[in-house]
Amino acid sequence: MPELPEVETSCRGIAPHLTGEVISGITIRQAKLRWPIPDDLPSLLTGQTITAVTRRAKYLFITTDIGSLILHLGMSGSLRMVDSSTPAEKHDHFDLLLSNGKLLRLRDPRRFGAVLWGGLHPENHVLITHLGPEPLDEAFSGKHLYQIGHKRRGAIKNLIMDAKVVVGVGNIYASESLFLAGIHPGCTANSLSKNHYYRLAEAIKQVLAKAIEQGGTTLKDFQQSDGKPGYFAQQLNVYGRSGEPCPTCGNTISQCKIGQRSSFFCHHCQH
DNA sequence: CAAAGGTCCTGCTCGC
DNA sequence: TGCGAGCAGGACCTTT
Fold first, then answer.
1. How far is the CA of A179 from the C1' of C4 (A)?
2. Domain that holds residue A204
3. Catalytic residue at A55?
4. Are A26 and A62 in contact (CB under 8 A)?
């Protein structure tokens, strides 16, 4: 599920329900996620007050006075606020219980997600320190992309999905951004001009900003039992549409593998 | 059997 | 040749 817009939507959805609340306990049903959930979390966090919920890349930070919990949703994770009487289902691995009778529940069938302790400075955690700029920050620009990309020999799609280059561009939005910029996903990075990079950076910003906006439209439904992520409803131009006509030129959308991942593009519009 | 929205780790390759 | 950065592939899991 989670690309950046989904994580941002989750962050905005849970923040008002968590901020200011007291943690009354933690339930770990399955500790084996991407990394083991630390077993001292319950004793550490019980009784603490949540002061903030924030996001960096696709990681969420749930902050208290003694430090922050770091969450990652991996490939199939989702978060939900539910009443503490709600029975846990098969893949509900982790609950953060609140003293008001609610809880934050992590569901993650594929278990590529993570629940980690970030301490007082989660931004210094080994998973966080080497991350590139946020795509919607000014630090991410065509200039930044060009400086890194012009001497790389790998495919451009892999470059923009590299979290050391820019965070938050997943497989869906990599294809979408490259379509918008008119760049073939398999292009070698060092074959692109400065102009290409400027266009691509703008396309990434535009695609992600729009997706976050659309994710936001379902925020009010966040607590509902089957609240679906907003981006499912959004318009994707090429992702998942091989064989369909290109919305720009009408030619058939192609699919190929780049770096083991499915990639979608229009042969006619992208070079 | 293949594929699914993530990303870290390993071991090889390439260019200085 | 030697070195380090960069690159491709494998790994982790379950469900459809």
1. 34
2. 142-266
3. no
4. no
Tell me which of A98, A124, A150 is where a domain ends. A124
Residues A163 and A107 in one domain: no
Tokens for A24? Answer: 């009354």
| Catalytic choice (A58, A102, A105, A107) | A58
User: Domain holding A244: CATH number?
Assistant: 1.10.8.50
Q: Which bases along strand C come within 7 Å of a protein CB atom?
A: 6-15
Residue A130 covered by a domain: no
A152 part of the active site: no
Backbone phi, psi, residue A53, to 5°: -130, 120
| Structural domain includes residue A14 | yes
CA of A255 to C1' of B3 (A): 13
Look up the pTM and report it. Answer: 0.95
Pick the closest to residue A145 from A160, A130, A155 (CA basis): A160
Shared-domain flag, residues A119 and A230: no
Active site residue A176: no
Please indicate, yes or no, if residue A250 is contained in any of the structural domains: yes
Query: Is residue A3 annotated as part of the catalytic site, yes or no?
Result: yes
List protein-proximal bases of chain B (any atom < 7 A from a CB).
3-8, 14-15
Beta strands A67-72 and A92-98, pairing class: unpaired
Number of domains in chain A: 2
Q: What's the alpha-carbon Rg for chain A, to the nearest Å? A: 20
Judge whether A133 lies within some domain. no
Per-residue pLDDT of chain A in tens (271 residues, 90 and over written 9): 688 999 999 999 999 999 999 999 999 999 999 999 999 999 999 999 999 999 999 999 999 999 999 999 999 999 999 999 999 999 999 999 999 999 999 999 999 999 999 999 999 999 999 999 999 999 999 999 999 999 999 999 999 999 999 999 999 999 999 999 999 999 999 999 999 999 999 999 999 999 998 876 554 445 443 444 455 556 899 999 999 999 999 999 999 999 999 999 999 999 9
For residues A190 and A150, what is the distance between their CA atoms, to the nearest angstrom?
4
Report if CB A90 to strand B is under 7 Å: no
